[in-house]
Amino acid sequence: MAEAHQAVGFQFTVRPDGVDFKLSQEVIKNIYLSGVTAWKKRAIQFKNGVLAGVYPASPSSWLIVVIAMMSSLYIRIDPSLGMIDACLHGLRMVLSAILFATGLWLFLIYLLRYTLKVLLSYHGWIFESHGKMSTSTKVWLSLVKMFSGRRPLLYSFQASLPRLPVPSVDDTIHRYLESVRPLLDNDQYNQMEILANDFRDFKAAQLQRYLILKSWWATNYVSDWWEEYIYLRGRSPIMVNSNFYIMDLLYMTPTHRQAARAGNVVHAMLQYRRKLERGEHAPLRALGTVPMCSTQMERMFNTTRIPGIETDIVQHLTDRKHLVVYHKGRFFQVWLYTGGRHLLPSELETQFQRILNDTSEPQPGELKLAALTAGNRVPWARARIKYFSQGVNKVSLDAIESAAFFLTLDDEPQGYDPAKTNSLDSYAKSLLHGKCYNRWFDKSFTLISYPNGKIGINAEHSWADAPIVGHMWEYVLATDCFHLGYTEEGHCKGDVNKGLPLPTRLQWQIPKEVQMISPSLYPDAFIQLALQLAQFRDQGVFCLTYESSMTRMFRDGRTETVRSCTSEAVAFVRAMEDADATNAQRLALFRKAADKHQNMYRLAMTGSGIDRHLFCLYIVSKYLGVDSPFLKKVLSEPWKLSTSQTPQQQLNLVDINKFPKYVGAGGGFGPVADDGYGVSYIIVGENLITFHISCKFSCPNTDSYRFGQNIQKAMLDIQGLFKPENDEKVVERRKHIENGKKHI
Fold this sequence. Notes:
It is a multi-pass membrane protein. By secondary structure, the chain is an alpha+beta fold.
């Protein structure tokens, strides 16, 4: 413990002539440096808070306004039109001028913010054809740049982002009925139409009024309910069902030394966290100009999902200085600071190597303790209250839940190996669930390090969406490979500090009854249409399809659903399976379906989606005790095909054209429905698309490998509409598929 370590610096001996105190200069120095670092951090946070608070103005602009006001008084011009004299009769003219200038400056700040918010409320640019930009959009873009300031910090735009609008009930119901039309026969559709119209005519208006009221009061009318009811109130396991994973670089492994790779990566994460806490990361901006909401990034570190009987909570702490490491059934606490600074990569490597070299055995019940976080939430919540609320168990659990994040040093190598057919499958399963007891699934994320130098992440989903973790991951991988680097022997660069305190074993007293609690065991449009074709070939029917879209152009925005199985997509798939249809007909239907998909995606991004509005109307109906058969049916429909695209190159730290081997494989998640598929994909440049496909062993009708083969065939068939059948690349890829070689 840090407190115990520091206490060694103070020793005293009772002697006949009094008490003899001895002070350790090294510890006193560390305490002093820690205090200085803490005050520096507070000062930087205060400075950046001021900069973000007055953005898009700057503190220096206040001085300019004051000087201009004072100068005008000396030449006997009163720009306040007498307001200075009228407001403050008893104060001197200088103070009156300063106060008026400050008020004017604050007024101008709010005027700039409001003007920028109005500009950012325009979304016409999203609906323009790719590569084309109208004159009005060019003018709008210039105005946004002008009002955005020069050097914005991470949270500078938060107060200027518009609020997510509440769509009209008529629009939402119309889009919903349009989305389910290809999935229902005439009788089913007519029944659904009756339910929808009944809801619209008799119940929707009351619910909509409350929703509009909430949109005026809260910064986002969806996000808090989405987090609570979709994530935190779920009582089923979060492993596989909610958590997602992200892989390492696909082709490159910068070092094969496990401790060294973990040392560099953890140090890069600490650098990222420091910039995050200070707000020094540049805000993400579409088109390089339109800002995205950064709220989700606040809880990336020092965060844990705490289980409850009825609902979980997300606990976020500040400035955590330690890490908890799991290796071969033992939990270790590692301090991340020394002398008021982060541990260097070489120092972290030393600490992790000490853990790898430790041959001690797990305590009774310690090996599979983390399985509690993988199972149903209620048993875990009850066990936490009964067995982890006092004594050494509470101290050790607090160490895990208050850690910056969780690190697992695995003992089995993983990663992409061209010589092994199922290497990526094994890697994905390891990241998604591991052994079910060697990941702490409640932490905001678990960093997983493998003996061959590969790494990956398993992330809890309630606190943020995948692009947020992906942003951090891009920074970490680029920093690891291109800034920190390794020695020729594969070790971290820098001197080795052997005087660091040893990692501390966490202590447990686990009763046998706890040990028994464990779990049972436009390119986008192209891909989405290929998925529809693959789904039909795999299952013989169309199904309700979920595609995730972001709404981060609005304050506190998270996601919206794009319903990819449209009537246009169904018509295209049927044409692909119709031997009498010509390629020209198929291509025309493909373009029509792709245009429809893109328009739906744009509507979702601009606040005109279907599902979040219906979800919030349902929540209001439950509060008011209003029974709606329509909303019940909508919210109970299963998503048998759940899909998501992982964003790539958010930071542009690595030129993948120049360094093609430094590309990531993306990440994945489990299926939403027991008899469905979960499909995550990442588009890497012009020549690579990676897919992560999951399904449950318990369902005999689904098979990830088979579905992957169907995706490959579907993409090649669609590609064949644009290229002749004898195209060399198409022919070669078809041969690979026929030979059973797996490329997804």
